[in-house]
Design a protein that fits this description.
CATH class of the largest domain: Alpha Beta
Distance between the termini: 45 Å
Oligomer: single chain
Radius of gyration: 21 Å
Number of strands: 14
Number of helices: 7
Number of domains: 2
Strand content: 25-35%
CATH topology of the largest domain: Rossmann fold
CATH superfamily of the largest domain: Formyl transferase, N-terminal domain
Largest sheet: 7 strands, mixed
Structural class: alpha/beta
Order of helices and strands: EHEHEHEEHEEHHHEEEEEEE
Strand order of the largest sheet: 3-2-1-4-5-6-7
Shape: elongated
Amino acid sequence: MKVAYFGYNAFSSCLDVFERHNHEIVFIFTGESSPHTDQIIAFAERTSCQISFEKPNQVHMEALVHDGVECFFAAEYPWRIPIPASLPFAINVHPTMLPDGKGPTPLPSLILKDSQYSGITLHKMTSKFDDGDILLQEAVSLDTNESFDSLSLKLAIKTPVLLNKLLSNLQDYDQSSTPQCGGSYWPKLSREDQTIYWNTTTETISKKLRAFGSLGVFSEIDNQACLITAAQWELHSHSLLPGTILSADNIALVIATNDGFVRIPRKHLLSA
């Protein structure tokens, strides 16, 4: 089966799963060259697979099917993919237990909502995001101090396993797929959702730091807008004003919150 793959590095191990099942990746859609796409690009170069950094359009998708592509597979791909009516299989990976948690930014939302579990859902793609019949899914529990990055790692490990199960009996899973009913939609999180304020509690700040992880949270330090991509925190009573810089050197800053301190390594402190 010829396959067109849509995605970034996070689920690039799925490419190997298709190969182990003797399917051929003939076209890849991904983002411009960056640390988020280098593994995908390396795969395309190694296999002489065609690659595009453009958004998919109807004409191109129809041409792929005309040339023998039988499956579109998307994993954390942000752009809408037109699905030709004659395409046999169109599969998307979504990191919640659909129909709950539809939407573009589910991982931070899961942590902000104190969810007990995430999940992996392999479902049919339709003209609506996250709305097709469910092919296969598996719950993934969230630890007490789960972060965006630790949860991303869990999903990256488990998704190829679930895909392997799906490809082992694709026709049967396709025919027995389950329509989605009800569920919930989580809107895209805003910059405000992604912003921390030093006059709030350490718990509130740490939850956002965990929820966005290496994506970063926005804040203001010494009247400068910044992006924090990792930090440590500690509850500790003090009399300092929130936002006060307790210490700063070439390695890290320590900043007072309402009821504790946050230590930010310099390498994880960027201009916003």
